[in-house]
Write a structure and sequence with these properties.
The protein is α/β, with parallel strands linked by helices. It contains nine helices and five strands.
Length: about 300
């Protein structure tokens, strides 16, 4: 019995020792990786503290961080937003109706359309209070609103949503809101260039121009031909993000964006050193190995 107890104690102690050794080994690797992560953060902090010049586009403003100075300038005029809002009227009508085509107008939809019709009539009466007239853009706004009012009235009268009529309305509206879109792009670019172009051409020397970083904040994935990205592509003579320009989606907090920019720059530097290609670490590190093994895996 005593021998059994001795063996039991012995094996318990042995198992306990193995657990300790196992945990110690795991902790060694964990500690090693923690050192890497700490050093990575330290290196990134060094980079973010030394990005100069840095131009940030966030909402309606451009922010310049240069030589320990911070300058903010508005680069999107109010008229830009007003033109987009009027242009959205036909699109909003489309969204209200698209899933009710060929159906009789429901009571709820009738109430919704009547309220929107009331809103449009009110906006039409107030339109002269906006800055459309001084830009000779007031006529186009009236035409968009009037087209929309007439179309809604016709639907309320017939109590049906006809697909052909909806398509015809959308095509007519497109020819009108395209005028708004073109002018909105023009005034945005004019204001952006008058502020940011001046920073770039007057404040920066040639070395600073080479090191300038552009951080663009957006609330959604940048579409092809994004206005601000297109402007900076032309300014820097580039065709893609990565060297000078970085677009960050679904974010508006400035410091978080700068942190992401620091990650991008650090990964580019490390990628150039380890792989001879600054883009390598901007893709999944496991990409090449997984691509190779997946081919092998599906041959089994």
């Amino acid at each position: 019995m005593i021998d059994c107890i001795h063996y039991s104690v012995f094996f318990s102690l042995l198992a306990f020792k193995q657990i300790i050794l196992s945990n110690t080994s795991e902790n060694l690797l964990l500690d090693l990786n923690t050192q890497f992560l700490n050093n990575y953060q330290r290196a990134k902090g060094h980079i973010t503290n030394n990005i100069d010049p840095l131009i940030i586009l966030n909402g309606d403003f451009a922010i310049l961080s240069h030589n320990k100075q911070r300058i903010e300038e508005k680069v999107i005029p109010k008229l830009y937003h007003d033109l987009k809002t009027i242009s959205h009227i036909p699109f909003n009508i489309y969204l209200l109706l698209i899933f009710d085509v060929k159906h009789k107008l429901s009571t709820n939809k009738t109430v919704e359309l009547k309220q929107y019709l009331k809103d449009l009539r009110h906006i039409r009466l107030q339109l002269n209070k906006f800055d459309f007239h001084s830009h000779k853009m007031d006529k186009n706004q009236y035409q968009i609103i009037d087209l929309s009012i007439d179309y809604i009235r016709n639907i309320l009268k017939t109590k049906r949503i006809d697909n052909n009529n909806l398509n015809e309305f959308c095509i007519k509206a497109r020819s009108l809101f395209t005028i708004n879109i073109e002018y909105a792009a023009q005034i945005h670019l004019d204001m952006l260039h008058s502020k940011v172009g001046k920073w770039y051409n007057i404040r920066f020397n040639e070395t600073e121009k080479q090191h300038t970083k552009i951080l663009i904040f957006g609330m959604k994935t940048a579409r092809h031909g994004h206005l601000e990205k297109s402007y900076f592509y032309r300014l820097f003579g580039e065709k893609r993000e990565g060297n000078h320009i970085l677009y960050i989606e679904n974010m508006s907090e400035e410091q978080q964006g700068i942190d992401i920019l620091g990650t991008w720059i650090l990964d580019s530097k490390a990628s150039s050193t380890f792989f001879g290609n600054k883009e390598h670490l901007h893709q999944d590190v496991l990409m090449d190995a997984s691509k190779k093994y997946i081919k092998k895996l599906f041959k089994k």
